[in-house]
């Protein structure tokens, strides 16, 4: 793990060995995460991929395939009191890319209103795998942590000038859950119990299949 590189994007990162965890530390971490890290590199990779198979593949099948082929190592990382899994991915051109996966959501966590509208497979990802999983540069090309999500009506878009409201989704109902790093946002459009995907970029937002776009654009980040 190249911690010097990681430190360019992650505040005060520390790689923590299991033997160095205090009892209060251990109480903050899921038992399944401690189990996954209690072995050599091959064990860690294998155990993390098992979790992805159960809780990542159902909503991001292509990215699961890509991760299976490119995951080189996983380690426990601490940044300003928060715990993460640090993923080192060796991509097709031989370069390493680093991703962070946040601690899964628990019943004791404060969650934003959008959480209660998540599609079931997305909610399982957040509760059993990661509260956010993203490329370390700008928290991009992956599902955002809950606290980083925002309504896209915070933007002022000249691209909507001249369009009638029925020509695009209501931006006040669109919560960005993913950012591409190049101005694209994948959103959940929440209209009472009706929840749909929306893609927003440098053109008027439009409805999409949420899981398909999440899978495609996350894969784009890994060069697949």
Structure, described:
The chain has 224 residues and is an alpha+beta fold. It has one domain (3-221). The chain has seven helices and ten strands. Strands 1-2-3-4-5 form a five-stranded antiparallel sheet. Strands 6-7-8-9-10 form a five-stranded antiparallel sheet. Helix 3 (31-37) packs antiparallel against helix 4 (41-55) and helix 5 (61-70) runs parallel beside helix 7. The longest helix is centred in the first third of the chain and has 15 residues, at 41-55. It is globular, with a radius of gyration of 18 Å. The two termini are 22 Å apart. The mean pLDDT is 89.
Features:
28% helix; alpha+beta; 224 residues; 5-stranded antiparallel β-sheet
Point out poorly predicted stretches: none
Number of domains: 1
The value of Rg in angstroms is 18 Å
Q: Measure the end-to-end span.
A: 22 Å
**Helical amount among residues, as a percent range?**
25-40%
* Share of residues in strands: 25-35%
Element-level helix/strand string? HEHHHHEEEHEEEEEEH
Number of helices: 7
Arithmetic mean of pLDDT: 89
Strand order of the largest sheet: 1-2-3-4-5
Classify the secondary structure makeup into a structural class. alpha+beta
- The gross shape turns out to be globular
Number of strands: 10
Sketch the major β-sheet. Answer: 5 strands, antiparallel
In short:
This protein has 224 residues and is an alpha+beta fold.
Write the layout of secondary structure elements.
Elements: H1 3-6, E1 13-15, H2 23-28, H3 31-37, H4 41-55, H5 61-70, E2 71-79, E3 82-90, E4 96-102, H6 120-128, E5 133-135, E6 150-151, E7 174-179, E8 185-191, E9 194-200, E10 206-208, H7 210-221
